[in-house]
Protein 1
Amino acid sequence: MSLSLRQMEVFRAVMISSSHAAAARMLKVSQPSISRMLSTAEERLGIQLFERVGRRLKPTPEAERLIIAIDDVYKQVQRANDIARDLLLQRSGGLRVVASASVGHYVIPNTIKALHDRIPDIQLEIEVQTASELVKNVANGHAEVGVVNLNADHPGLEGTRIYDARLMCIFPVDHPLARKATIRIEDAVEHHMITYEPDTPYGMLVEGFLSQARTPLISNIRVRTSQMACSLVEAGAGIAFADELAVHGSVSSTVTARPVEPYQSVPVSYLSVRGQPISTTAKLFIELLGVELKSIAAALSDEGAVTRTNG
């Protein structure tokens, strides 16, 4: 016979706590009820799940196999609860946004502040995620809008480009490259470089850019985010590439940047479910995001960096 969800819950609690008493406290029920429920589960399955060793319960090999499947069930239940919460959030006029690192840390905060000023009692949830996590969470409805730099293709999502940042080379202010107005590929590969993991959007972009070089690349440090690349440059670990939004928001007075040559675009887009209209709140967020990006573009222009905006 099969187990009920409640029996699975009890079994999981005992696996985690290794005792009836601790499982009872975890589930806020009596210890006898835990014992009865576990005994019934073993009768239904026709197998022993635990052996008593002193005062603790030791899982049998069968229990170790069963917990893997039950953990998967719990993840799906949690996922359903998360989606239900997000649907309620959207219905109440709230908004959940996911964003990639350089945009999330340096552009989204001011946009959220502007949105909160417009709607003081709005419920907001913001999370910075990797590109793959971001795409997945927008596609399955866990977030209404995702803001991502670089391309993030998914058949169920529609991406709208709202900004084109320029790829920059970053290095310490006293670095020999600081004498140059723009950085060519040949200039960069002469120096120790911090690169990105090849399975990341940044990794694919930078690898494509550097593949044009005739000289072998010198690098033994790989990262997954532009934020970490900027931090390592600041620490003196090498030079790196990052989009101008990340550079504008993260580097200190000890680090400077120059645009690469030839021009390399790093597009910023917002993602939504294809064919599904976004809420009024999400539309306002995107409008305010555009205002913030234009403000940054003006600041970057004053600093001498080349930017391009859409819309």
Protein 2
Amino acid sequence: MAIQVGFLRAVNLGKRRVPMARLVEVCTDLGHASPWTFVNSGNVVFEAPGRRASLEKGLESALEDEFGFECTTFVRSAAQLRTALALAPFTVGSGDTYFVTFLKAKPSGAAAHALEALSNEFETLVVDGCEVHWRMHGKSTDSQLVKRDWERILGVNTSTSRNTTMLTKLLAKIDA
């Protein structure tokens, strides 16, 4: 079985609470082996065979049943996560913030171009398959991009972002 990582979109914000212990139980109930969570932002690691879309659909359905709200989930294998982090399409300077944004599907050429066109002096977007590499020259809270910019191009609930510092620590824990 492959090591998989599930990234839940927009949880533990406001009323959208997903206790990490319960997330582990939901994964166990789905038959996923050795689940564990990493930080309290909806990241779960587990072992499971199967295609990404099938794993995502199973998790989303079980989580919505359990918590009573839509819980869009993005699954990547540990190997896919390593590949995404190895890309490093730009230099990250001191004080910069670097996210990988996971997408539900690879955007069309026009959509990828439109995303990259959102780049500005503060932030740079680079699309690579089903991920967007997003560097900001400063804190993410200073980003000029807003949710509607992404949704106008990709649609609603089709992406979730994670800081590469956290992703690197997550991979180190997987490898330990």
